[in-house]
Amino acid sequence: MSILTSALGALGHRWRGTASSGDPRLLPEAQLSGPMPWVIAIMIALTVVAAASGLALRNAARTASADLEGGVTVQIVTAAPAERTRQAAAVLAALRTAPDVAEAHQVAQEDLNTLVEPWLGTRPGDDVEALPIPALIDVRLRAVATPDRLAQLRAIVVPVAPSARVDAQAGWLAPVFAAIETLQWLAGGLIALLACATMAAVLLASRNALGNHRETIEIVHMLGGTDRQIARVFQRSMAFDAAAGGLAGLLLGLITIFALGRQFAGLGSGMVSGAVLRWPDWIAITAIPLLGVGLAVLTARLTVLAALRRML
Amino acid sequence: MSQPDAEIVQFDNVGLRYGTDKEILTDISFTLYPGRFYFLTGASGAGKTSLLKLLYLSQRPSRGLIRLFGTDAITLPRERLPGFRRRIGVVFQDFRLVDHLSAFDNVALPLRVAGVSEKDIARPVGDMLEWVGLGDRQHARPATLSGGEQQRVAIARAVIARPDMLVADEPTGNVDPDMALKLLRLFESLNRLGTTVVVATHDVHLIRKVPESLIMRLDKGRLSDPTGALRYPPRRPAATNPIAASPL
Questions:
Q1: Pick the CATH number of B36-57+80-236 from 3.30.1490.20, 3.30.1360.120, 3.30.1480.10, 3.40.50.300
Q2: Where are the alpha helices (DSSP H) in chain B?
């Protein structure tokens, strides 16, 4: 009886007031045995690529916008070459004395030929000089090209070149900026959908696991186990799966980003050069798996607690 | 045995039915007092297991009043159930051991659920398994244990945390007479330490082994023999029997 006395007497009733814990041995934890890590890996990889695309597009738009917001183009559209040249020189001289103008220069004829080359051709015998290509003056203002400033510029330009057109460079790219903004929203929507899909997958996996371990859960309940203890076991299991899947997904996503980056870098021109990822962007991208783990754990917890509340 | 001063369990006109079937427990009224040893008897299908389920809060009644440890168990908020369940040790008829846990971990489960530290678990659990004759099977999974061994693990799990009330459903059904007697002595030891013991059995020989016990008898869902007359020989006058004293 001494052993029994030891067994029964060692604990007394002290434990009833102690804080309960989520012991991993309450339920079997099937780590990395199911499809959940792979599902989460795919979701995280797609989210990483979508987020990187959205951030790169945002950076490209910001860079282009910064470059163009003080830019104005003056077109001298007179058909006669001599008159065009004269008006261009007069406009240039007038603009260089304007207080808001930081810089103004005429776009070289060679550059204009290069611009129209894809449409008009430069094969032997082509004569682009014979076409009435407008003279272009690239103007850089000291501030943003607002409608008021454009009106002031027109007031300077029109007296010396009545047929001149004065346009803000940002205005030309407004449809491009609108398209980029749409793509950014699309990337955001895609990320939201992927988060919803991840939550749905975790919800189904949690319910399935609850069904598989229902008998054990009932026993733990009968022994005084709380819903939170049981939920913690599922949370821990899900956190492990999500962390493994998140890491794999991040690696897959990064490989995809670098491959796409190399492809776009090969284009080497225009707005693409501004579509780069900066350090804050990389931090945000590497935080995606952590957010994924948090989302999966929270979903598992809420699913399990909701299901347990239906049990006595 | 001194007259108890407060009831640990009180049933008043309790009825239980599953779905729309007829009641399997009808007008059950009785009172259990702390530190007593009770047997619940009755033929198979009389409702013993259903009555025990109400006792260990696995089932809510269809009607009637149940007070447990002085608290209304019917209106008890769900979040307070674990605290009450930790005060009740249960030996299930089908053992209900956790398959993926060893015998040691099964016995340690109530302590881990209660948040007892690992250093405070090892010795009492080892001693308890030693006492029930399974000292050399501590690491065995339930699937590798015989029916009798599983039953002993289930009993060790039920008593390890020294509950205020022990509820056992046919706890000696799968063990030999010697082990049955030994387990009964375990229940008596626990009872002497202050635990109220309720054992459901139809083994009259087992009931005879505990002369101080009190008896409830279920017959077709009704508590038909609350005076302890079934016990042989009936040593206690009905008037001093707390079951007899309670309104029925």
A1: 3.40.50.300
A2: 48-55, 81-85, 103-113, 122-131, 147-159, 177-192, 204-208, 242-245
